[in-house]
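User: Hello, can you help with two protein structures?

Assistant: Certainly.
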Amino acid sequence: MSAAMETEALSCPCASELDEVVAFHNGDMRAAIVTLLEDIRHLRHQLVLAEGAMSSGMTRGWRPSYDRD
């Protein structure tokens, strides 16, 4: 798979993925959104912890981005 195709696949969730998320929450869209927001919060916290554990030499000055470009 080319890099462009891979990026497109990651950035555009397919309908079945969305259906799975909603089905997991028994059709409750609000609960699905709350869970996804909690996941985002958790992953951002994990990114903060990883950033603190990495040396800037190991990453050659790279810093994580907390928002989408």
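That covers the first. Now for the second protein you mentioned:
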Amino acid sequence: MLEITDIQAEANAKIIVLGVGGAGNNAVNRMVEEGVEGVEFVGVNSDKQALTLCKAPTLIQIGEKLTKGLGAGAKPEVGEKAAQESAEELEAAIDGADMIFVTCGMGGGTGTGAAPVISKLAKDKGILTVGVVTKPFRFEAKARMDNALAGIEKLKEVVDTLIVIPNDKLLEIVDRRTTMPDALKKADEVLQQSVQSITDLINVPSLINLDFADVETVMRDKGLAHIGIGYATGDDKALEAVKIAVESPLLETKINGATHVIINISGDISLMDANDAASYVQELAGEEANIIFGAKYDETMDDAVSISVMATGLGEEEKKSTKTRGVLSVSSSGALSSMGQAEGDIQMKPIQQPKPKDISIPKFLQQPKK
């Protein structure tokens, strides 16, 4: 079924991004540098010296007694104990949050060991908890990959939603002259765009509004997730952009068979653009998928659109009929609805638009398709 919501903006949700360990701290640094809005940042590390390089306003050194500020030594069990030692301080840092992102590079000591502990603390408080992690390159030590896979399995048990970015995917989108730091930044760009797209969904008033309850519906207790962002121009811009989003080049996941999907489209959009994007996603996910649609008209994006797709419930063993494709139509009330679905009228009420802000598109998506 296709559901389109128009809910007046409520008080902004409190969203916190916790970067755990070296890779997590680096990811937070990039988001701070890029000016990601609507979130609070916390840096967490067992390495005191490395933590001083983190640009988050709030810094937490974990396991001070255990590690003496020297890090976890690539041992996840040390990272886990360090987080447990500092549980009280970590709980205080996330107190009052509606949603948190826990990001780290899996395979080392601090991130791999501490991320599940932090996530469980948050989930036990009822906070919507999302993990965004990277897997090591295959050319790295086998022990590191083994640690990463074990850490991911632990994290799956204590987060609502998990997004995994395999570093090997970077090899498919960079050339031979790309430096290692520049390549790793591309993974951070995906995290940055994921966080920004969700915070904008919740906090920025739009033509068709989504709120925190919509995001919670899609992400609460849903397991493995896919988040992608696409950008395109021209007559078929919406279809091209949504294809890029669902084929997100740095993820292994696909949206086929997803149980819940949020589509958010912004830019110079028409009714047909909305139809193209939503219909394509409905066809892939299946008619049983709960699809929620948001839209923001931005006249400054001349003949261009940016589309984010967030799909959850991947891998659910449900039989999904694909006989009926969800095609958007316009009801007599002017609402968008899905053909063949018994849905109530939903109002599309234009509201006061905020001053448009620049939209940051990952560099590897900055070649618009005509």
